[in-house]
Amino acid sequence: MEANPAPDAHPSTVPPSSASKQTQHAQTVALHADTHLNTSTDVAPPMHTSTTFTYTSDPAGLIPASHAPDPWAPDTPHVYSRETAPNSTRLETILAEIIGAPTVTYGSGLAAISALYTLLNPKKVAITGGYHGAHGVLAIFERLTGVTKVSLEDAEKELGKGDVIHLETPVNPSGECRDIARYAKIAKAKGALLIIDSTLGPPPLQDPFAHGADIVMHSGTKYFGGHSDLLLGTLSTRNKEWMAQLAEDRTYLGNVAGNMEAWLGVRSVRTLGIRVERQSANATKLVEWLEAGKRGENVKGGAVVKKVVKQVLHASVQSKESGEAWIKEQMSGGWGPLFSFILSDEEAAKRLPSKLKCFMHATSLGGVESLIEWRAMSDTTCDTKLLRVSVGIENWEDLRDDFIQAFEALAAELGL
Ligand SMILES: *Cc1c(COP(=O)(O)O)cnc(C)c1O
Predict the structure, then answer these.
(1) Count of CB atoms situated within 10 Å of the CB of 108
(2) I need a labelling partner for 413 at 20 to 30 A (CA). Which of 74, 115, 162, 339 fits?
């Protein structure tokens, strides 16, 4: 029989540090970090759809309004699924090991960002460009709290104690990197906090904590989900007070991940490592090929690439062109699977997606299938000649050949 835990007004909600962490790799813990939470003999985790859970049948164990000292502990009973639920607890347990810090999940990436600003309530946020939705969240907080945005460039000059540097890296839609360690130094000097939107650089590609991040956020909708079929957000931090507050706030904000989504999330993160490694390798090869074609090198389809593609944007290109060592160091696990390229004019960019067979024309990213987006469709601030590519797990040469036939069709149609 499960014992009700003792009441605790300020519960420490940090998952117990797992012994496996020191000795096993992310690819292994993704499969086994949640084994101790299995309540059945099923090998595949069961889906729990219940919103509510029975109390202990032992009257002596009924303690009014008690708080669990550790909602992630295997013997903590679930009470109501707006607080904790079996599927999301398993997912959070795995993600904590993979991301490297206690993690809470949310119903979407933007739900995580709004929970973050609810927690930190800064007066100023340094943010430049990146995912447009983050600016949408900040517009709500501007209305509610009067928070103001300043550019990243002005962070050092403008920020004070308790303010936030909101750094997305790699950044949407170029896939280029920003220097986490550099902004960590600025944040520290000003008493500000550094939060990293690491969505485009999922594990094992980069570890923002290793470079000084205070909180790491992911849109789990992208690489954690990986199959374009679930909305999810995550916040991770090693600060115990923040973690406890985030867990408590989430109960009242009510922005939890759904049971079905959390179940799909567990299924998905099992394969995170092999998906991301393949997607990263594919993107790197495609970018190398496009760059070689642009330089006039003798590669397959090189001539049509030179004719059609004006510029390629990706951290690998940024690293080569700038020669700065921190870029490769920060992306020590491989380059991001998302890149962009720019064509000669808007009409060409608008027409290209309809000529591709392996890339679906859609927004979002991170799924096993390759997507391309004429980015002006969802981001009005974006260059209308830009196409954003989210590379999937297909064979990269098939993706390359698909680009070649589409570039050739486009060149013939527009007389390029
Ligand atoms: C998609 C995305 C978000 C928002 O995530 P949702 O899950 O769609 O709410 C935030 N940041 C980045 C970098 C994203 O790509």
Answers:
(1) 19
(2) 339
